[in-house]
Amino acid sequence: MTMVYDALILPFIEFAFMQRALAGAIMLSLSACPVGVFLTLRRMSLTGDAMAHAILPGAAAGFLFYGLEIVPMTIGGLIVGILVALGAGAVARLTVQKEDASMAAFYLISLSLGVLMVSLRGSSVDLMHVLFGTVLALNNDALILIALVSLLTLGMLGIFWRALVAECMDPLFLRSVSRLGSPVHFIFLGLVVTNLVAGFQALGTLLAVGLMILPAAAARFWTQQVAVMCFLAIAIGLVSSVGGLLLSYHVSLPSGPSIMLSAGVFYLVSVVASPRGLLLSRLPRAVHRAA
Amino acid sequence: MPDLTKDVSSVVQACLNFTDLTLGYDRHPAVHHLNGKVAKGSLLAVVGGNGSGKSTLMKGIAGLLKPMGGTCSIAAGTRLAYLPQQSELDRTFPARVIDLVSLGLWPRRGLLGRHRAEDREAVSRALVAVGLEGFEKRAIDTLSGGQMQRALFARVLVQDADLILLDEPFNAVDEQTILDLIGLVTIWHGEERTVLVVVHDLDLVRAYFPETLLLARHPVAWGPSRQTLSQENLLGARHYREAWNENAPWCAAEASVHGSHGHSHHQDRVKAGAR
């Protein structure tokens, strides 16, 4: 018993930095995972990835002028992220070009600007910090930011839930009964950006999107209801966060990748072992129903 | 309204009113200078070849396509339900049949209104009406084409609309399903709802639809189905040019700089059965 306690509980009781990391990861899971569910269902998983890269120049601009400070980096990331989301979304909605192409164009421009700006100043250590984050060094500002983003996200999801589901399931139907289609799309993109910005301090710009996509992608294998899928994704996100933090603590691994890899394990197990996964759907069933 | 005196149908309240309606894509019209009224409670079949503007007209009425010219006005307070030909429904979305049909509650409850017991009852009644009783908890990606069409009809039922637009609802659906769905359309007609259906099967039209609009980009004929679907009119409809003519001359009505003579050059083409 004490061994289990020592391994799983004690690190969080003993060290303040572990408590902060845990609090940050829990709040991020609560908001980023359901956003990720809709991101994957809308086949925008790679859009999330693109957005994560796109916020880099904003964060870099903040970094360039103020050093490694959370507020300017966050505001910068937010502004650039929203610009890219609006730009790519507008091109997709108003021209013949589809969102994947416009998003790729905007994020590539944005990413190269970002790398250029970071390289103007600072060593590769700084770049690594911006790209991969440090969940074990979350300060108060960062925690407050993450808390605000979680609250905002859960609130918006609660209010626009029905429209978001309808827009994902049958957008043309939503357009025929309501004008909320386009607004809800942009609100959703806004949520993606804010969650990425909240996550990059903890997980870095490259991995922030992982906490959105991996639990959601894993959850899809287990359920046929979008609400259940959201709760499952949150649960997987929470367990992966705690597991990843403990792994990084005990084996001295970088925390961000540890969390992502824990979620990755959930995903791979789901791919293989879930009712609709590789194994069970391939197995010949001895019994089937009469109708 | 100067034409009220001439128009017989004006005795009945109009649900839809097309005035010189031109709809299209990229300045090429797909529905050209359509005039006329659809009386409240009518059951109208919209027929015509591929590319004759049937779907475009539906989109225009549903407000999903802005007119290039003219207007399409719907009587105030009309609730509209639209079942498109190419549904954007994502069949892989994690939802059950009951979730799909419950979308039809939107006009009643909107974004935030709580779904009440009576709403859930309406949904299960709709499922019974389309013959999908017991399918509530089935995932939508397990439905056959016919079952999906039944589920979409159930959603239209739940929408409880006054004006129902069905764009080729009987495509790729077996005979039994067609008969069941036609039964629903007939019930709606009996309930004084206005129903517009795009149909290809002319026998079906003659058997079940009192009125028909024969489109060939411009209205070839519009009136009682038997008259509208005469050999002469059908031949006339076949002679129009479907080809997308990139360099088609500008329409005279438009070219005369919003001239007042308007659409008269098409009026004379509306043959027998026209009002």
UniProtKB/TrEMBL annotation, chain A:
Keywords: Membrane, Transmembrane, Transmembrane helix, Transport. The chain crosses the membrane at residues 20-41, 74-92, 104-122, 142-165, 177-194, 200-219, 226-247, 259-279. Its main location: membrane. The keyword Transport applies. InterPro entries: ABC_BtuC-like, ABC_TroCD. The keyword Transcription regulation does not apply. It comes from the Bacteria. It holds the Pfam family ABC-3. It is found in: Cell membrane; Membrane. Belongs to the ABC-3 integral membrane protein family. NCBIfam families: AztB. PANTHER family: ABC-TRANSPORTER METAL-BINDING PROTEIN, IRON TRANSPORT SYSTEM MEMBRANE PROTEIN HI_0360-RELATED. This is Zinc/manganese transport system permease protein. It comes from Neorhizobium huautlense.
From TrEMBL, chain B:
Residues 16-242 form the ABC transporter domain. The keyword Transport applies. Keywords: ATP-binding, Ion transport, Nucleotide-binding, Transport, Zinc, Zinc transport. GO terms for molecular function: ATP binding. InterPro entries: AAA+_ATPase (IPR003593), ABC_transporter-like_ATP-bd (IPR003439), ABC_transporter-like_CS (IPR017871), AztA-like (IPR047748), Metal_Ion_Import_ABC (IPR050153), P-loop_NTPase (IPR027417). It holds the Pfam family ABC_tran. Belongs to the ABC transporter superfamily. This is Zinc/manganese transport system ATP-binding protein.
